[in-house]
Specification:
The protein is an alpha/beta fold. The chain has 15 helices and 23 strands. The radius of gyration is 26 Å and the shape is globular.
Length: 494
């Protein structure tokens, strides 16, 4: 495996999801010769089976939910009739409208060579491509970025092969064939994907059961967040079974529908069974590493692709970005890593940059929305970091009240006796938008005093950020100064 003296490309990118698209874009922007290789649809999971279709489905479900709530606002409408094929047409139309942003034509116009085919590394510098149109090409590159993404985890549960299970990838094709929403839906997994799908389908009319092995939903979030989301889901009719372990599936001869046997972990002898017409596995995602020749180069160990702080594998010129490497499987994280992968791949021998993981926003698009950044209380306690908590409840916020969205809170962790922000958790309308102000503050070392001194438009949801800063200020007002001011004003009155 001698290093070639000449290369066909400066950079080859394998995978056209968020990480691959951004890596290719950046490389072309700095006038490097770059080739982007994708065997499937451009845009990867986010466009085709993840973020875009799920948010389109959530919006349809939200409209149905608000129609049912219309009477609270003095608007009388009949119970909404869900046209499920129409819902799926909206999902497909959303994908089709966004697809040009990630298309072959757009990236070709940006100066990227796009090849549609299956890529495989034959040595550390050479990639062969089995073209979708037939035939094969071979290219060498000075640097390679692996952006192959991730795939849903399918657990080795007994009986699973006897039921027609769905994942976040196969869900959409199945739903496109249905005349109506599934009558009984089982969602296995209480992370972001599971919670989003459970709420969307119950709002569209399904009888939904959500099963989570852990004792609470969204276990990486603040405990108060988990409690708020559990309340939101159960109040809308989701049958929530936390602390339950899946034991085995019971199928039917036609593999349509079935049942899942569960054990209640809070009661060793407690066993129950849930029947379903459709079941969605939402148990997380694992790196997609097979089929790219990575094993033969020793890049994958136990299914994991190891990289250093600069996203470099054991071969410094082979880098990885996005879901294939983690540690955070978010589209915005993939785009963030892509800059480092492209720059370190092209210029790493001159100057390289470690990835900045200091501020990673998280969001779950249920209703009310969840967004967080930095430390939660559990994280701070585990790391033995001292903190104070300040919160503001949205039932006091004018805009939330008039919008009928007065559920949730803003919770901020700060350094004791200082306004330095350690972490923020928000539950409420547009939480994923509200978190941005705290992101900017934390990124640039601005504390709650700076947020409080900034004018916020009235009436808006973002005023909640100002009010939580005000709560912190009142709690830390110097008592001696207030006593002195009281005496001063008494003296001024004569």
């Amino acid at each position: 495996m001698n290093r070639p003296k000449k290369f066909d490309r400066n950079l080859i990118v394998i995978g056209a999801g968020a990480a691959g698209l951004v890596s290719a874009y950046i490389s072309a922007a700095v006038k490097a010769e770059v080739t982007l290789i994708e065997a499937g649809n451009m845009g990867g999971d986010c466009l085709n089976t993840g973020c875009v279709p799920s948010k389109a489905l959530i919006q349809c479900a939200r409209i149905a939910h608000w129609a049912r709530r219309a009477g609270q606002f003095g608007v009388c409408v009949a119970e909404p009739e869900v046209d499920f094929p129409g819902v799926m047409r909206h999902v497909r139309a959303s994908i089709e409208r966004i697809a040009p942003h990630d298309s072959v034509e757009r990236y070709t116009g940006l100066g990227v060579e796009v090849i549609q085919g299956q890529a495989r590394l034959v040595d550390p510098w050479t990639v062969t491509i089995a073209l979708n149109s037939g035939g094969e090409r071979t290219l060498s590159a000075r640097a390679i970025v692996l952006a192959t993404g991730a795939e849903p985890i399918v657990p080795p549960l007994p009986g699973l092969g006897k039921v027609r299970y769905l994942t976040s990838e196969t869900l959409w094709n199945r739903c496109a064939k249905l005349d109506q929403v599934p009558r009984r839906l089982l969602v296995l997994g209480g992370g972001s994907i599971g919670c989003e799908l459970a709420q969307a389908f119950v709002r569209l009319g399904s009888d939904v059961t959500l099963v989570e092995k852990e004792s609470r939903l969204l276990p990486r979030e603040d405990r108060e967040v988990s409690e708020a989301i559990a309340h939101a889901l159960t109040s809308e009719g989701v049958n929530l079974l936390t602390g339950h372990k899946a034991l085995a599936f019971v199928g039917k001869p036609d593999r349509i529908g079935g049942a899942l046997r569960l054990r209640n972990l809070c009661n060793v002898e407690g066993e129950t069974q849930v029947t379903f017409d459709e079941v969605i596995l939402a148990l997380g995602r694992r790196a997609r590493t097979q089929g790219f020749g990575l094993e033969s180069l020793g890049l994958v160990q136990a299914g994991k692709l190891e990289v250093d702080a600069y996203l470099r594998t054991r071969y410094p010129h082979i880098l990885a970005a996005g879901d294939v490497v983690g540690p955070y499987q978010f589209t915005h994280m993939a785009s963030h890593q892509a800059w480092y992968a492209a720059v370190n791949g092209l210029f790493g021998d001159i100057k390289k940059f470690p990835v900045d993981y200091s501020l990673i926003p998280r969001a779950t698009f249920i209703d009310p929305e969840v967004a967080s950044v930095g430390l939660s209380e559990d994280m701070a306690s585990e790391q033995d970091i001292a903190y104070e908590v300040t919160r503001y409840d949205l039932d006091d916020l004018d805009r939330a009240i008039v919008d009928g969205a007065a559920q949730g809170f803003v919770k901020v962790l700060t350094v004791p006796d200082k306004d330095t922000i350690l972490g923020v958790s928000i539950v409420g309308e547009n939480a994923a938008e509200l978190i941005a102000e705290f992101m900017i503050a934390m990124k640039h070392g601005l504390g709650l005093n700076k947020i409080l001194s900034t004018i916020h438009t009235y009436p808006t949801m973002v005023e909640a950020n100002k009010f939580v800063a005000g709560n912190w200020k009142r709690a830390h007002a110097p008592k001696w100064a207030l006593r002195w001011l009281k005496l001063f004003h008494r003296w001024r009155r004569g």
